[in-house]
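To whoever is on call:

I kicked off a structure prediction for a single chain this morning and the downstream step that reads the tokens threw a length-mismatch warning. I double-checked the sequence; it's 120 residues and nothing unusual in it as far as I can see. Pasting both halves so you can look.
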Amino acid sequence: MAPDDLERWSEAVEALAGGRDAVWMNGGRNPEIRFEQSGRAGSAVFVVADAAASGSSVRVLVRLPDEWSDEHREGLRRVRTARTARHRARARSPIGPTRPRRPCPVHGAASRRPGRRKRP
């Protein structure tokens, strides 16, 4: 997830926790996720609309457990901490950012260098 996605998720959690409707991932590249107040205490309607790809949507009434917003805030904090640690580790690497090795199309094992084959 991009940092902006995490920020928008944080805003959606705060809006829903404050009794307001919220939208997440409405940038057009993913299905839109809306959170609407249901009119019932402790419940919300979650709407997932995939207008761009399939034109379909689904609406689900969800009972929100006590402390749900605190759990989401904590989850966001953990994800942000992990992202920060990962970026710091990459920045400290003596060889710069590393990428996982791609499987060799011939041998199936991880290749030593992307784009190079072992000599027979």
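Update from on-call: the warning came from a stale cache, not from the record. Cleared it. Sanity check on the structure: The radius of gyration is 21 Å.
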